[in-house]
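Consider the tokenized backbone below.
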């Protein structure tokens, strides 16, 4: 596979601009200062492709202040070579896989389906966890290169056995009950050989008649070819007949269509005759209506004239009514304005009285305001005193709680101090545990060896002593078996005692580990104790300040009774002042309004006289209107009859024209019908019914004959295909016969080899594990020398996964190495594992030069450039030395708080 690009939005130091980083084949270098977001690129790929997240939660992976972010990784599949983009959100459950070529989303109903797809296309076995592959080999997190090598032996086995696939060989290398029974293997091989010999005999009988079947195949092939030629000839003749049949049928269809057209014309001629009759009746109706309209035209004209006269009179009536309405309105205004003048005269008097009283109340009103303001201040002080008292109670409570917390924490620290002796025993207890487990494993191995030797003595036809190799008599064999069974029983008892001792020891280790955890908290607890003391001091200062504030406010509150007494003596001059002020405000403009109201009343009376004079001009109007309406009523019947006949009379010319048009169209239809009847007669003379029937008969005969020939051909072809398939199977069986004969010979050799293994190999599985670890160790030793630049140093990775470095004859285990030596050894072994075992050809190295000096960093750079078997290797480092690794050096830096 190959990763082409990774895009990040709102992830850690990356903002929502969607920063995209492109990777190439070979070596890539992602460089930049600490905190620039380099490791985030590696974490994003692990999150999207390998379901791994190094932080505690997805929220911690999202940029500060944002609710979610996303990662898009585009890669080329190991399986089909196509490009895919994996899009995954942090802070949301969205996780999509998209075909990068078609931009179509792949359909997965659940996360398990996406994980299966990713394993298949990344090249990870179905049973292997994606997260384990990432964090243990492909993308080891920063500062964790050496952690796995500093663990106990059991913990190292838990890490590296699955990684190296050595757990697959447990059934072979184990000395427990899971070790295979070589006798059963030998028996199984013999049974397999017998089955092979039976299969060889069967195959020889099945391939005997292969020559006869090949001759039959040639005959059938010839027959099928003859049938192909005959069918082709008949299909050509059928094609000619179908073309002639089609032409005759077209002619027959044309005759049928022409007959249908003639029939249609006859129907249209009948319809058109009906149209002529209808047009004739409508013409007579229009003629009669025209005569009646001419007789009533004079009465209709008078009616129109009287209607216009009535309309003019109605307009004068509306004008008169408008003047009458204006007169009524002015009369109502005169009445209202007269009352308004009277009210304004009263208001002028009220305003004068109110203004005089306001002058009398001015001084008393101001003194009332001063006293009320002072009383409000006193009430505020009372409320403040009460609030401060409540706050004082809360502060006293907080002070006591802080004192209690201080004392509790102090007591907890004293209790943990007493646990130090127990915590200091932890390392010694763990060493005792390992020794007990080794003793138990040794006894298990011895018990297994004894039980296998007992089984071999019981099954052997000519038993020999497992110790000296001498043949044994029947009694000696029974005695030897009994001795070994006694030793087994004794060993099991001893093992039981060791297991009880281990159980007690594990209880002590649990107590020591818990004590160690508590002791580790002392530094933090002491810091917290100091903080508690500062909190107590702060609370005491707050309580003292609140007491002082309460004393100051009480002095102000004591003046309350004196102020209230003076207010009671004053009464409420402000309210009376406001009441008089309202009266004055409401009436102070009355004098100006009174003059204006009198002027308006005079104008209204003048308008009243004007409208009364104008109404005199409309005298006698109602009589004129009544006279015109009576004449219109006399003319109404003649006018209605005129309008009723007018529409029909106006259609006289059109209906006359329609009658003439219909008669012409009827004549044209008759002419068209006669022409088509002549054309039909000509077509009937061209069509030969007898020829048509002969063509149909011959074509139908061929249509029936051809399928029969095809069926015969299909049957022959099927037989030919079956025979061909059968011959292919027989040829495969002949080849299989040769293979089985060879397998039988190889099985005989395997049986001999198993016997050899049974006699000479005690623990083949362990040797296989040692071979694999030794190969990795040799490769790691070579890398370690190059990284360190010291040919005299040797690195060994032992079968218990312990790392040992030898220099000048002195062995140093991993925990005794310096920081630089640990980093070099861990890096060498991880690179060796990937180089020897991995089929995932992408790897990330995050800050691999930690604790290396300049010369060793240079050696590491050179070695990384020459690493084989990796299609793509990406180094993440703040060390600018790696910029020389490749032309694709990606430099990251922070600008305005975001990675660019």
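A designed sequence for it:
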């Amino acid at each position: 596979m190959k990763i082409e690009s990774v895009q990040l939005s709102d992830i850690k130091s990356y903002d929502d601009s969607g920063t995209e980083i492109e990777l190439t084949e070979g070596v890539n270098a992602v460089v930049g200062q600490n905190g620039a977001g380099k490791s985030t690129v590696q974490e994003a790929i692990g999150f999207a492709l390998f379901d791994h997240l190094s932080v505690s939660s997805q929220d911690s992976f999202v940029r500060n202040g944002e609710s979610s972010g996303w990662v898009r990784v585009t890669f080329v599949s190991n399986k089909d070579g196509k490009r895919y983009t994996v899009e995954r959100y942090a802070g949301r459950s969205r996780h999509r896989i998209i075909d990068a070529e078609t931009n179509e989303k792949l359909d997965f109903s659940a996360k398990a389906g996406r994980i299966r797809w990713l394993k298949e296309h990344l090249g990870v076995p179905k049973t292997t966890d994606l997260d384990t592959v990432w964090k243990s080999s492909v993308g080891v997190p920063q500062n964790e290169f050496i952690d796995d090598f500093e663990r106990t032996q059991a913990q190292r086995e838990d890490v590296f056995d699955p990684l190296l696939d050595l757990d697959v060989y447990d059934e072979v290398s184990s000395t427990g009950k899971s070790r295979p029974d070589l006798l059963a293997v030998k028996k199984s091989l013999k049974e397999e050989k017998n089955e092979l010999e039976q299969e060889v005999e069967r195959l020889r009988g099945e391939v005997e008649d292969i020559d006869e079947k090949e001759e039959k195949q040639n005959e059938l092939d010839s027959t099928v070819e003859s049938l192909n030629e005959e069918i082709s000839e008949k299909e050509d003749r059928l094609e000619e007949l179908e073309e002639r049949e089609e032409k005759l049928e077209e002619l027959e269809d044309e005759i049928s269509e022409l007959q249908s057209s003639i029939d249609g014309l006859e129907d249209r001629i009948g319809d058109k005759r009906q149209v002529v009759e209808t047009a004739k009746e409508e013409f007579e109706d229009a003629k009669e209506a025209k005569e009646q309209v001419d007789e009533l035209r004079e009465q209709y004209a008078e009616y129109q004239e009287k209607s216009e006269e009535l309309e003019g009179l109605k307009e004068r009536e509306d004008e008169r009514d408008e003047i009458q309405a204006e007169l009524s309105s002015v009369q109502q205004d005169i009445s209202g304005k007269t009352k308004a003048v009277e009210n304004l005269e009263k208001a002028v008097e009220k305003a004068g009285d109110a203004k005089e009283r306001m002058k009398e109340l001015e001084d008393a009103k101001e003194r009332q305001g001063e006293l009320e303001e002072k009383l409000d201040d006193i009430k505020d002080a009372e409320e403040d005193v009460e609030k401060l008292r409540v706050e004082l109670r809360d502060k006293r409570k907080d002070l006591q709680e802080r004192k209690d917390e201080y004392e509790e924490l102090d007591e907890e620290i004293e209790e943990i101090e007493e646990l130090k002796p127990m915590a200091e025993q932890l390392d010694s207890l763990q060493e005792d545990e390992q020794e007990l487990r080794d003793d138990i494993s040794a006894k298990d191995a011895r018990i297994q060896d004894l039980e296998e030797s007992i089984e071999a003595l019981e099954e052997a036809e000519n038993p020999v002593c497992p110790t000296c190799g001498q043949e044994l008599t029947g009694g000696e064999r029974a005695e030897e078996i009994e001795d070994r069974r006694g030793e087994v029983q004794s060993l099991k008892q001893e093992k039981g005692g060791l297991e009880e001792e281990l159980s007690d020891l594990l209880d002590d280790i649990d107590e020591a580990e818990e004590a160690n955890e508590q002791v580790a908290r002392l530094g933090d607890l002491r810091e917290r104790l100091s903080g508690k003391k500062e909190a107590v001091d702060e609370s005491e200062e707050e309580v003292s300040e609140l007491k002082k504030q309460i004393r100051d406010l009480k002095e102000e509150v004591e003046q309350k009774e004196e102020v209230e007494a003076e207010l009671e003596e004053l009464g409420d001059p402000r309210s009376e002042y406001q009441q008089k002020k309202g009266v004055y405000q409401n009436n102070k403009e009355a004098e100006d309004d009174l003059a204006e109201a009198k002027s308006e009343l005079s104008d209204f009376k003048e308008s009243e006289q004007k409208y009364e004079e104008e109404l005199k001009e409309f005298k006698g109007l109602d009589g004129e209107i009544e006279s015109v309406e009576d004449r219109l009523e006399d003319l109404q019947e003649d006018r209605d009859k005129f309008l009723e006949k007018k529409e029909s009379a106006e259609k006289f010319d059109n209906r006359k024209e329609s009658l003439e048009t219909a008669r012409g169209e009827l004549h044209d239809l008759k002419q068209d019908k006669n022409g088509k009847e002549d054309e039909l007669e000509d077509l009937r003379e061209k069509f030969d019914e007898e020829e048509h029937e002969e063509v149909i008969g011959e074509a139908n005969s061929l249509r029936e004959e051809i399928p029969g020939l095809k069926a015969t051909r299909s049957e022959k072809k099927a037989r030919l295909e079956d025979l061909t398939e059968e011959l292919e199977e027989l040829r495969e069986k002949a080849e299989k016969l040769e293979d089985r004969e060879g397998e039988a010979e190889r099985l005989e050799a395997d049986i001999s080899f198993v016997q050899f293994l049974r006699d000479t190999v005690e623990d083949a599985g362990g040797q296989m594990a040692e071979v694999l670890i030794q190969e990795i160790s040799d490769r790691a030793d070579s890398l370690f020398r190059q990284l360190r630049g010291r040919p005299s140093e040797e690195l060994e990775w032992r079968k218990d996964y312990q790392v040992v470095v030898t220099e000048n004859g002195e062995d140093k285990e991993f925990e005794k190495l310096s920081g630089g030596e640990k980093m070099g050894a861990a890096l060498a072994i991880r690179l060796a594992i990937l180089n020897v075992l991995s089929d995932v050809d992408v790897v990330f190295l995050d800050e691999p030069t930690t604790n290396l000096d300049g010369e060793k960093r240079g050696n590491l750079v050179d070695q990384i450039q020459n690493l084989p078997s990796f299609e793509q290797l990406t180094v993440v480092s703040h060390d600018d030395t790696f910029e020389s690794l490749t032309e694709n050096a990606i430099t990251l830096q922070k600008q305005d708080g975001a990675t660019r």
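The CA atoms of residues 128 and 898 lie 37 Å apart.
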